[in-house]
Known about the structure:
32% of the residues lie in helices and 23% in strands. By secondary structure, it is an alpha/beta fold.
Amino acid sequence: MSDWVxxxxxxxxxxxxxxxxxxxxxxDYLSRPELFRGMRPNIINLSRxxxxxxxxxxxxxxxxxxxxxxxPSVETIIDLxxxxxxxxxxxxxxxxxxxxxxxxxxxxxxxxHIFFGMMPDHRLERFARLIFDWxxxxxxxxxxxxxxxxxxxxxxxxxxxxxxxxxKETFFACMARYTGRQWRDPKxxxxxxxxxxxxxDPQEELPPSSISTLKHWARVAARLGVEVEPxxxxxxxxxxxxxxxxxxxxxxxxxxxxxFARRAQQEGMxxxxxPVSMIRCTNKVYxxxxxxKNGIPVPATIMVAGEDDFQKAADLLGFxxxxxxxxxxxxxxxxxxGDFAELKALATEWLEETDLLIAQKFMPTAFDWRVGVLGxxxxxxxxxxxxxxxxxxxxxxxxxxxxxxxxxxxxxxxxPPLVLDTGLRAARCIGDGFYGVDLKxxxxxxxxxxxxxxxxxxxxxEDHAEKDEVWxxxxxxxxxxxxx
Length: 484
């Protein structure tokens, strides 16, 4: 378990009796890096100011450089330095605030303090947790404008030194709750070197990894001194109890998976999928532009923004063609159209929900390649066969459970070099995490169809050829980043 260290600007004004944790002056932390060499303390930065190039700013910046978790992170400090940098969070926060205080808004002052995501009033518990999800800091100061609809005029980092006696008592109580959470299962007989969280939804129909697969990974990881524990969307507040996060739900930047990834990144935790990879991979418009810019072959593509583009797509791509919604997964929002009438009907329907569609040349093949890439190196190579009497590997409109085709797994040494090389080049455009690159191998060459940020990794399928080497490398990817 890592220790907590509290940084204060002035030790004389800090109530040492209110906490059992080590308290250190900010300037000593900055000037004496040897104090925690070889250790991984968790830093609570209570500096008087977090202004750019102040001691408070540098304390959070250097904590990250030293591989130590810190609250607030320098990213949070920057996010809260100007309203334009956090205004995208305001609609959700204001909605939660108004729901909590409906009919009682006038009872509240125009300035609220949130301590470690907590507030004494139970009505504001959800709001406090939500704003802490966005901006993880010991003290958040929120300025509110009263009216028929409560609005947030400012969110800032609060100062411990400016709290009154009652507020300080509440602050220390909240800090004790926050830092007092168990980091390991007290029943565990042998403490693990690291503890990894895997975010799962037990009810998901087509998860990227099944529960039984994650249990297999846990057995492999245990041999490397790592504990793997499943968590669900309700466990965001416990995420800091772990050392790393592996997201095994279908990701979307509009749901809780993105918030988990963002929180993990704020914690300084290695995470798959990271928020940047999510943003880059979930939108097929971005992917097409990115691949084209980097000289990676993709099927001939036309962006469809309105009816004027229908004929252009038909002339350049011919029929049949493939029509795609930019933000879709597991073959949903992807359809083949056989003639102009089908193109016009489907595109008109979909353009009511999105401003842009993708039309691509249809490339009929008996299978799709997927190259798994981890840390810029190949992890697995699999051929997914098309679902029976269907042109995709998954057929959804069956009236029941989706129908999937078979697979053929290849040892990396036996996979076609051009397929591996093209997959690696595509994945490296995205980042250094874990990606599944879908490719089509044709007489005209190898083409990238898309890059998935949380590809399937199922025991007995993707690991069929390379066996437990897949899971060992995955575990070591996290360990290497934690050790460094």
